[in-house]
Here is the input.
Amino acid sequence: MQVLQGRNFSRVFNDSASVILNETAAKMIGWKDPVGKYLAYPGNDQRFKVIAVVKDFNIESLRNIIAPFALFHISSQTYGPNADYISVRLQPGNMNDYLHELESNWKNFAPATPFDYSFLDEEFDALYRSEQRMGTVFSIFTFLSIFVACLGLFGLSVYTAERRTKEIGVRKVLGASVQSIVTLLSKDFLKLVFISAIVAFPLAWLAMNKWLEDFAYRIAIEWTVFVFAAFAALLIALLTISFQAIKAAIVNPVKSLRTE
Here is the structure.
């Protein structure tokens, strides 16, 4: 926890009547400079001196707002310590050896209580496991959607090139370059991709903004995300149809017109 004002608890001082507030608690009380002021704790006649303000920290999911928080020294006996769990910080190393040693000590300390443990990083990971699972599912379906769309674009480009074979031959005879023919065959498809992006982006923004409303602390959806998505969609479409467009553009016009 980052101390913004004042000092942390210390053995140098008698902190039995000291308290540390987070930013939200100080703002809720209305103190601009809370260090040195006194706080009355409900149900206790004793007053506690504010010795520090710490930066707001999350103890729950980001779906919840940060609550006002007061930290009391254990010697204050304001509340009983949480005896259900013991937090242990381990050095990097063989985790199995650490757990075996902890279990041995636990059995000596509380033989009637089963040894049960969890890791803090896994506890935090569980807070957002549903979002991670949803992200994986969306990634899979996005890949499948892009793959099916590319198959459709490729089929349409083959059909268009076959249908306009003689037109391409005439244009080449009249001096059209390969680049101009590729542009001719590609621009209709790229127009459709551009129109689909105009329709899809507002819907995507509404859907994602609605999902983000479930979080008390969230990012804003930047317009650059949609620019990148539009560029990626156009690039994928262009790469899909360019093979067939180039193939049709470099065909000998004599072969295209010999039946005429």
Q: What stands out?
A: The beta strands are 3-6, 18-22, 38-40, 47-54, 70-72.
